[in-house]
Amino acid sequence: MVKRIVQVMVGGVAASAALLAASRPAEAIPSFAAQTGLPCAACHIGFPQLTPFGRLFKMKAYVLGNQDFPDAKNFSAMVEGGYTHLNNKVAGGLSPDYPSNNAWSIQQTSLFYGGVLDKQLGLGAFVQGTFDGISHQFTWDNTDIRLARGLNLFGMPVVYGVTFNNNPTMTDLWNTLPAWGYPFISDSLGMGPTASLQINNLAQTVAGFGGYSAINITPEDMLYGEVDLYKSLPDHTAFALGAGPSNGIAGVTPYWRVAYQHSMGENSIEVGASGLTDHPYPSGLKHGPTDNLTDVGLDLQFQHIEANQSFSVQASWFHEYQHWGASYRQGDTANLNDALNVEAITASYLWRQMFGITESFNSITGSGDTGLYNTSSSNANGKPNTDSFTTELDYYPFNRGGPKFFPWANAKFFAEYTTYTQFNGLAHNYDGNGRNAGDNNVFFTGIWFVF
Fold it and tell me: pLDDT tens-digit profile of 321-360?
């Protein structure tokens, strides 16, 4: 039954995956590639963007392949390092132990378990532990343990499952939401804006359990839904996992996701919506009255995938409603109610699975609040508005065959340049000390190596 459901859901993707397997012997993500016997191009447009088959593999709880139980090949590692150059140096250093500009760093070193835990049960996992080379700290990273089953409902194949995870949106199948959206490699030494969405901020500071389901209304049309409930990690657990202190959010945080995907031969398009709401305590407190933050987002993804070239577009818009019922009374915010909007659009092209180019635009707008944003020395005007443009060039040397002594290895050499037209509310003198938005323009280049 499960095999039949998988075959129906894959549809036209299966033939292209088989073609790619025959023409691309290199396997990009070691643990998943070793388990399935498929090349990276079957599951990824470059990495980490997922193809329709890659989305199916994730939805089916990472168990597809001929393996029934864990094996040594399910373990892999990653090193991510690079060089950072800002248009204007940062007084005091880019980060503790780093110079004011022109810095080399090993941003992340990660260990993974990826793949089947028990194929008969439909139980699999993606578990990542990371040493942060900037903060010099080990932390649990993205974790998703899920169980998936299949059934036939009124002649329509259905996949349903449950997930335990630690990051809202990391369970998602598309590359539009924060966990897997662009930038795929961010510069940890670059200057970041003051404002960010709550849906971004909860990663690794919560643990959650939820359920999801996908129904193929037709072989070309899939409807997906998911609901997860998250709780803040207790202080002792958060510190033990490298995510401490506790993020100070009361009660349960619900996250929801709906998406519709239509496939047309080499093309697929997805439209969806997502959101969450939570009740954080004012800064420094973990009891008493709370604030209310509600995020709602819309997203769209288009992919065109051929054997020798791929093109994709992702777009997203998020609105965050902020009610500072507790923080306002304490004087931590200037307004009782604020709003934050984040928009992003990214287009990427990959030629012969080796050479890629990406263009991206990101925009943050919202209410001015001198109490909320002036707490940062890099924001003197109390506004969150930030606009940036990024160009990225990529080279994947092993997609046509890894080195003979290490066939599982893959790498991505990248070069990014990000331009800011406004930063933390202004184009000029945004911090009150003469720093301009353009001073934060950053060139970031390096390697993302997995083995």
Answer: 999 999 999 999 999 999 999 999 999 999 988 999 999 9
Q: What is the pTM assigned to this prediction?
A: 0.88
CB 109 within 8 A of CB 131: yes
**What six digits make up the tokens of 204?**
């690794």
State the CB neighbour count (10 A cutoff) for residue 96.
9
Q: Determine the structural domain holding residue 437 and report its residue range.
A: 2-450
DSSP calls for 107-154: EEEEEEEEEEEETTTTEEEEEEEEEETTTTEEEEEEEEEEEEEEEEET
* CATH code for the domain of 121: 2.40.160.10
Dihedral of the CA atoms 203, 412, 402, 77 (nearest 10)? -30
* Secondary structure (DSSP) of 224-242: EEEEEEEEEPPHHHHHHTT
The β-bridge partners of 123 are: 118, 147
Would you say 52 and 216 are in contact if contact means Cβ atoms under 8 Å apart?
no
Cα–chain center distance at 115: 19
Give me 432's structure tokens. 């009150």
Split into its structural domains, the chain has a count of 1
Side chain identity, residue 3: K
Give strand ranges (E) for 133-220.
137-153, 156-165, 206-218
d(CA 359, CA 416): 10
Q: Which helix (H) or strand (E) holds 297?
A: strand 292-305
Q: What is the pLDDT of residue 8?
A: 35
Helix (H, G, I), strand (E, B) or coil at 220: coil
